[in-house]
């Protein structure tokens, strides 16, 4: 795998061509280009001969359409569009968080219990709006895709969290919420003959339970209690799966790519994430600095500005040329700022290789755009 040295350039082709690479996870904070990177890498991997599946999360509608995904299928579909004849295969899917959760409940609880669980309002709240559910379900789906053995490369996009770390933290948070002390407090008495809640509250043993019941309302508390009782039998499987997926993420065939904009906040966030991956012994392949602004001409900014000034002072006015020169000077300043920021990142993390992907003139929503991003990702 591509272990960079002293800020080496990341070549994602080495990664996707390596048959040992089985899973690539694209992480990063919100809006940096995770979905685009995941789709572009998958397309390129398929064109270079691999049986690839990409698990996307909330792709922009036009990108989904370009991949032939019109609705949330929750199962991969082979991408078959005109003019696309990859050496390998490209399959794509959009994560349907609710259906993934439902399927998991069905797979673990018996049919009767499953229906009870699915109809429970508390379940409906947890499965759609609990923070961390989407991250958990993305991992669950990754586990499922890996278990089929149908693809030799799985590329995973991650949910649009504020922080890249959420992807690693959320599943644990969700498990502990479902598995935690509060839930046990709620369910244990209920098991002892349905008196539970009343006993709990009247015994006054827990201000906490009272507070919960005040905040959530009695009915929701009762739903929660019923839900947790039914869910109880699933916990073994639930935890076991989370553990297995975490193991997959730590395995040698998995590579993490951190996507970041060349901005101070995004790079700071990427730094935290790099450190966290290393603490967790999760294999990082490199940083994708997305939407950089390379300069198009070699003219230094000072020269461009001097020329613009001269033109303005000159006899013949040349407003267009002046504007272009000033624009160029701005662009040079921006490029230099980005270069400095990336150099600072590399100084702090010399072992992380970096690839710069320029901002394309428009959004990436077709195969041509994805191909172009894929090419840039290979460092060419
Ligand atoms: N290099 C690029 N050049 C031009 N447009 C880009 C580039 N990378 C991403 N985009 C565009 O930026 C937007 C956001 O990208 P994308 O959806 O991949 O980000 P994301 O990290 O997945 O966001 P979220 O956190 O919301 O899931 C999209 O419209 C995409 O087409
Ligand atoms: Mg996205």
From TrEMBL:
<dbReference type="GO" id="GO:0005524">
    <property type="term" value="F:ATP binding"/>
</dbReference>
<keyword id="KW-0547">Nucleotide-binding</keyword>
<dbReference type="InterPro" id="IPR025723">
    <property type="entry name" value="ArsA/GET3_ATPase-like"/>
</dbReference>
<dbReference type="InterPro" id="IPR027417">
    <property type="entry name" value="P-loop_NTPase"/>
</dbReference>
<dbReference type="GO" id="GO:0016887">
    <property type="term" value="F:ATP hydrolysis activity"/>
</dbReference>
<dbReference type="InterPro" id="IPR016300">
    <property type="entry name" value="ATPase_ArsA/GET3"/>
</dbReference>
<dbReference type="Pfam" id="PF02374">
    <property type="entry name" value="ArsA_ATPase"/>
</dbReference>
<protein>
    <submittedName>
        <fullName>Arsenite efflux ATP-binding protein ArsA</fullName>
    </submittedName>
</protein>
<keyword id="KW-0067">ATP-binding</keyword>
<feature type="domain" description="ArsA/GET3 Anion-transporting ATPase-like">
    <location>
        <begin position="21"/>
        <end position="292"/>
    </location>
</feature>
């Amino acid at each position: 795998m591509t272990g960079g040295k002293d800020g080496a350039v990341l070549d994602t082709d080495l990664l996707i061509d390596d048959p040992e690479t089985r899973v690539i996870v694209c992480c990063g904070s919100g809006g940096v280009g995770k979905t685009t990177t995941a789709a572009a890498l998958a397309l390129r991997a398929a064109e270079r001969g691999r049986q690839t599946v990409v698990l996307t999360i909330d792709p922009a509608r036009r990108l989904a359409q370009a991949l032939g995904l019109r609705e949330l299928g929750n199962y991969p579909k082979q991408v078959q569009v005109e003019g696309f004849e990859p050496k390998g295969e490209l399959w794509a899917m959009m994560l349907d968080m609710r259906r993934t959760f439902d399927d998991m409940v069905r797979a673990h609880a018996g049919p009767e219990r499953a229906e009870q669980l699915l109809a429970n309002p508390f379940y409906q709240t947890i499965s759609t709006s609990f923070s961390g559910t989407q991250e958990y379900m993305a991992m669950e789906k990754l586990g499922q895709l890996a278990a089929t053995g149908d693809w030799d490369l799985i590329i995973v996009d991650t949910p649009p969290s504020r922080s890249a770390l959420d992807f690693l933290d959320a599943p644990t948070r969700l498990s502990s919420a479902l598995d935690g002390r509060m839930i046990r407090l709620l369910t244990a008495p209920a098991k002892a003959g349905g008196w539970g809640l009343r006993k709990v509250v009247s015994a006054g043993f827990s201000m906490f339970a009272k507070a919960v019941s005040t905040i959530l309302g009695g009915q929701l508390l009762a739903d929660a209690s019923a839900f947790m009782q039914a869910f109880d039998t699933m916990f073994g499987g639930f935890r076991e799966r989370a553990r297995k997926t975490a193991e997959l993420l730590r395995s040698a065939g998995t590579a993490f790519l951190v996507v970041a904009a060349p901005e101070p906040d995004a790079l700071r966030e990427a730094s935290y994430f790099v450190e966290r991956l290393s603490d967790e012994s999760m294999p990082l392949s490199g940083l994708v600095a997305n939407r950089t602004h390379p300069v198009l001409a070699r003219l230094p900014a000072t020269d461009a500005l001097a020329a613009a000034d001269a033109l303005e002072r000159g006899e013949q006015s040349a407003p267009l040329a002046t504007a272009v020169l000033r624009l160029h000077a701005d662009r040079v300043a921006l490029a230099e700022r980005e270069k400095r920021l990336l150099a600072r990142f590399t100084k702090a993390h010399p072992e992380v290789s970096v690839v710069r992907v320029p901002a394309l003139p428009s959004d990436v929503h077709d195969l041509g755009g994805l191909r172009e991003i894929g090419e840039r990702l290979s460092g060419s």
